[in-house]
Every structure is written in structure tokens, then in C-alpha cells.
Input
Amino acid sequence: MELKSVEFTNLNYSFVKKRITIKCDGSTKIISSASGTGKSTFVKSLVGIFPLDKENIFINGRAADDESLKLFLENIGYIGQQPKFFKGTIKENILLGVTETNLDKIFFFSCLDEEFAEGKLKLDSDVGFGGSAISGGQKKRLAIARALATAPKILFVDDFAEGLDVKTQGEMLKRFREDKSFSKVLVV
Ligand SMILES: Nc1ncnc2c1ncn2[C@@H]1O[C@H](COP(=O)(O)OP(=O)(O)O)[C@@H](O)[C@H]1O
Ligand SMILES: [Mg+2]
Output
């Protein structure tokens, strides 16, 4: 079965009332609301960090069951507010065991292509203790690259703007919008 859409039908957040439908049509959705209004809580409740409530989820237009929920979870990528880095190289931290991925594609969408091309970042360099050897902006983009390494059909980015300068935000958004190969849900 292929993931085509997911609908959450019983939400209650100040910025989203009742339902939200996310289609795997390559679209880019932006969800925006003031800080402290529950955005991070909201995203966590979509991606399964908080328990998913089967009764209020429809996958491909049908009430969710264990099988379709598994399909959904296998096909999404999520970047939380504080991405974690583990002892090891940049490559290991991006792949986390994934053996086949299109690095050019994930570096393009995470706007890391130039830094790798120029040698400012190297796949085999160490990230340092807890990521201490990489900058905040690089962490955010590496976390996006990591989420893309599993080729998700839907990418959820909490706090999209955090850690990214305005130029990079604009460029990434442009690259996201021009692409239709995966859907993006960005929270700002
Ligand atoms: N439905 C909701 N609407 C608003 N706030 C909520 C809701 N559910 C939980 N919260 C609480 O609001 C607080 C801020 O939530 P958070 O998700 O971190 O906000 P944001 O990411 O928008 O800054 C948390 O303590 C969270 O538990
Ligand atoms: Mg938040």
C-alpha cells in the first residue's frame, strides 16, 4: 500500500481547529502561530511522539488501523526543536544506519550542498561531543538531511526558521516549493 494522504479529524489547537489533511502530493504547507500556542505539541501529536489516536485518523481516506498507521509512520520524517547528535562523523549522524540514500538530493534540500562542495563540511569529520563542532545552523540543516535520508513522503519540520538565517530560509523554502517529490509541513 502506498501512502497518499492522512487526515487528523479531532484536533484542538488555537491555530488549527478540528481537522487537517496532509496529501502526499509534493505540496509545502506552512503552519504558523505565536510562540507558546502549542505548535511543538501539535507536531508531536501528528508524528507519533505522543500516542496516535486511531479513531481520529484517516489514512488514504479510510479509518486508520495498525497496518496503515505503520505505513504512515514509515513514510514520514520529523525534525524536532532540539536535534540530537551522537559521537561519530557527520555521515554517521546523517545516515543513522540507512545504507542507501541520495546524498546529493538530501544536501540540496537541506541547503548543505555548497558547504560540502566547498569543503567547509566533510562527511568524515567528527561532529564533536553532542555536536559541539558544528554550528547551530549546520545542526538544523544536518537534522533536515537526516530526516530526508529515509526518503519520507511527508517531512515535518518543527520551528523551521530556528537556527536558519533569513537567506537560507528563503532558499530552502524555494527548493521545497519547486519540488513535488515529497510533501512538506513546516511549522514556524
Ligand atoms: N492544544 C493546545 N493548545 C495550546 N497549548 C497547548 C496545547 N496542548 C498543549 N499545550 C501546551 O502549551 C505549552 C507550549 O507548547 P509548545 O508546543 O511548546 O508551544 P510552541 O511550540 O508553539 O511554542 C506546552 O506547555 C504545552 O503543553
Ligand atoms: Mg515550539
Summary: Residues 12-14, 35-41 surround adenosine-5'-diphosphate (ligand 1) (CB under 6 Å). Helices lie at 39-47, 66-74, 90-95, 103-109, 113-117, 136-148, 166-178.
